[in-house]
Amino acid sequence: MHYLVTGHTGFKGAWLTLLLRSRGHTVSGLSLDPLEGSLFETARLAELVEDDRRVDIRDATATATAIREMAPDVVFHLAAQPLVRRSYADPRETFETNVMGTLNVLEAVSTTPSVVAQVIVTTDKVYRNVDQRAGYRESDPLGGDDPYSASKAMADILTQSWVKSFPGVATAVARAGNVIGGGDVSPDRLMPDLLNSYSHGEPASLRYPLAVRPWQHVLDCLNGYLVLSDALLAGTGAGEWNFGPGEESFVAVGEVADITARLWGDGATWSAPGGEYLHEANLLALDSAKAIENLGWSNRLVFPQSVEWTVDWYRAVADGLDTRAVTADQIRAFGELA
Questions:
Q1: Dihedral pair phi/psi, residue 165, rounded to 5°
Q2: What is the DSSP string of 17-36?
């Protein structure tokens, strides 16, 4: 089976590429250049990708040409501007990438005869957030108070509209939240910031130590995407699906920093200097009962394991072990938990 991953040079895209390859699939990728020090670079994933292209999904013609020429069977659309704080700095880029970019991918897929299924990845932040402890269900209203959240809600609604207006390719929307794991180098993300500081013997700086987030390992999230694509190929799975951790993973940022510091050792610590910061949601949780009951999906790692696996990955790489081998070992270990 030939899979196309848009955004394959990003954090989740790189893990998904390796996960698909571990299952014997052919993988092609369409993305912008990887960030310096990214998992894509350090694990040398260009060696494993059948067709590796640098395309800005805001370019409709280039996107359509690339997808038609690649001729994949299944598309995972992950390419996005994924950062809340960056969306304030450049809202136009955020809306053009996340909304029009998604439209360009949907249009391109509709004119590519080889594609039989596609998974459009959005986020937990598509929901109209009222800071409720109970997780949001797929039927709850969508919204967004910041440019990133609003753009992803728009992309989600766009996909639903597209499927109803132009039926053809089996399509599903996957919504997931905060994922952690080795190899994330994006700015303004907790675990990379923590471990970068700890590894340099510096205290980490936290903006919102009391904010509660649902923490999930990247492999649990991506396994949901794969289970969903398998369902689409089997003739089911269309619609919108949540893939989030259980309530035991709703943990304050400061507590995550404490646990990570203990695991890292070397006197690691953090501080919260205070100050004025841009709006970020205080709590976002997903109710994943639909996926659990209908797809047979569930998280394999509980919260402490997710943090431990993440720290172990960074420690192993810091100790000089091969990045691809470390990542592949965790993928194998995850598979053994099934």
A1: -85, -35
A2: HHHHHHTT-EEEEEESPPPT
Name which residue leads in pLDDT, 151 or 135: 151
Q: How far apart are alpha carbons 78 and 7 in whole angstroms?
A: 5
- pLDDT tens sequence across 88-111: 999 999 999 999 999 999 999 999
- The Cα–Cα gap between 332 and 334 comes to 5
**171 beta partners:** 118
- Structural domains in the chain? 2-333 (3.40.50.720)
Which whole-number Å values give the CA distances from 259 to 195, 212, 300, in the listed order?
A: 12, 15, 20
- Which helix or strand (DSSP H or E) is residue 315 part of? helix 303-318
pLDDT digits (tens, 9 = 90+) for 328-337: 999 999 999 9
**Which stretch of DSSP H or E encloses residue 313?**
helix 303-318
- Of 227, 228, 224, 216, give the one whose Cα is nearest residue 243: 224
Q: Once rounded to an integer, what is the mean pLDDT over residues 315-323?
A: 96
Give tens-digit pLDDT for 237-291. Answer: 999 999 999 889 999 999 999 999 999 998 999 998 865 544 455 677 899 999 9
Q: How many CB atoms lie within 10 A of CB 280?
A: 18
- Please give the C-alpha separations between residue 307 and each of 74, 202, 217, 304, in angstroms, as whole numbers: 31, 20, 8, 5
